[in-house]
Amino acid sequence: IHGVDIIFSDSAKVKFRIQAPLLLQYGGKKPYNLMPKSVNALIFENMVQTGQITADTGIQSDVDKKIQFRKNVVAKNDKGDTYKSDELIWDQTTKTVYSNKIVQITQANGNVVNINSFVSDDKMKHWTGKQTTAILTVTDAPTQ
Question: Residue 122 to residues 48, 50, 88, 110, 140: CA-CA distances in angstroms?
Fold first, then answer.
């Protein structure tokens, strides 16, 4: 399918929108859709776009309700934070985005955080992880 535009809604409200120039459908016991030429996911809250995930490749599985974003993955939220990784997995059932690969978060205030075992809500606003390192910007003078 060329020029794909898939809208996910709940109670007539758009929640997510997936766009891709090409979608290949594969059948079998575990059917899936492959978006090999890039994928763009727009995230909405109260009909307003609050985030975006782009990647070179996307794999959507209707069986387990997950979308895997692979290669050059960049996600942004409405707070101005940017997330970069080789892979992010969006689980529509648990409404989480996660990765076992390193995720680099550049926050709007300039802080840079690198995380392993990344887990976030699907709005990319509240995250946790393990083995975290960070470069933090300190603007206040120390007090005695």
Answer: 15, 11, 11, 22, 33
Reported as half-sphere exposure (CB side, CA atoms, 13 A), residue 23 has a value of 18
pLDDT in the model for residue 101: 93
The single-letter code of the amino acid at 144 is Q
Q: What are phi and psi of 111, to 5 degrees?
A: -65, 145
Q: CB of 19 within 8 A of CB of 39?
A: yes
Q: Which amino acid is at 22?
A: L
| DSSP run (H or E) holding 52 | strand 48-55
Helices (H) and strands (E) in the chain — how many of each? 0, 13
pTM value?
0.86
DSSP structural state of residue 102: -
Quickly count: other Cβ atoms within 10 Å of residue 68's Cβ.
19
